[in-house]
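Sat 14:20. Reprocessing the chain from the morning session after the first attempt stalled halfway. Input below, unchanged.
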Amino acid sequence: MKKRLIIIFSLVALILFLHTDVSAQCAMCKAAAEEGAQNGNTQSATLNQGILYLLMMPYLAACVIGYLWYKNAKRKKETA
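Finished this time. Tokens:
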């Protein structure tokens, strides 16, 4: 079981660190960012990174809750 968890965490780490560039913008956000970049706005360059950050948070929270649930169930199983 420990080997399986190590493999899962290794795959997750591999996916997180070896990802490709992703465009996570809707059409309106992309148009606003491109227009801002053409007009010299430097803040629009980080818009895509902010969207990806916000997109990642629910998945990260679900993983943490799942891990805590797993540890709690494992602890209950060992005491029973």
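Helices lie at 2-17, 27-38, 47-79.
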